[in-house]
């Protein structure tokens, strides 16, 4: 009887050690779990295309809802932001409509006019552009044109995850300054953006609750070379 009790004790002890070891491994393997909790926007892809009278840029990613750059991260929701720039003069009363075809589905949206820069935009979060391309028909005034948009990303580009981790390393000091009771009192954005020449860069931003902003920019190519650091 005593022998069975000892054997059971050994088994329980080994099981306990296994659970502890597993917990330690999980903790060590998920060192980015806490900063992931305060992600307020990730922009994962940029697609562009143009026709004779329209230029189109599409941004894909997730962002907090409600959106506010205030140092507090809210739950993320997917977005597919279609931005149309007419190559002709428009009036405030003009209405532009976009019909997006992707993933075997078609979505139609009336575009809202930006009050200052003359661009028109609509968020179509249901659209699946994971293939990296889509067909968009745009109508406005007497123009009706089809535009094919394609991703600017290339194989071998720095990934969002790589930019996220590199950004946390380069902004380790301001990030650590927001730590309160084991949690970060800030929000983090990792966004892919394009330059006027069509080249891409990653913009990693930390915004704390006192209004402080710290950011780094990385070229998506050339090994993720740092372009600029901002604080």
Question: What's the short story on this structure?
Answer:
This protein has four helices and 14 strands.
Main β-sheet, spatial strand arrangement: 1-2-3-6-5-4-7-8
- Elements, N to C (H/E): HHEEEEEEEEHHEEEEEE
Number of helices: 4
Strand content: over 45%
| CA gyration radius, whole angstroms | 24 Å
Strand tally: 14
Alpha-beta classification: alpha+beta
User: Taking all residues together, what is the mean pLDDT?
Assistant: 88
**Overall form:** elongated
Terminal CA distance: 69 Å
Pick out the low-confidence regions.
1-28
Outline the biggest β-sheet: 8 strands, antiparallel, barrel
- Helix amount: 10-25%
Map the helices and strands:
Elements: H1 2-29, H2 33-36, E1 39-50, E2 54-64, E3 76-86, E4 96-102, E5 105-113, E6 120-123, E7 133-140, E8 143-151, H3 160-170, H4 172-176, E9 179-180, E10 183-184, E11 186-194, E12 200-208, E13 213-219, E14 226-230
Parallel strand pairs: 1-11
Antiparallel strand pairs: 1-2, 1-8, 2-3, 3-6, 4-5, 4-7, 5-6, 7-8, 9-10, 11-12, 12-13, 13-14
What does this structure look like?
This protein is of the alpha+beta class. It contains four helices and 14 strands. It has an eight-stranded antiparallel β-barrel with strand order 1-2-3-6-5-4-7-8. A two-stranded antiparallel ribbon has the order 9-10. The N and C termini lie far apart (69 Å). 25% of the residues are buried. The N terminus is likely disordered.
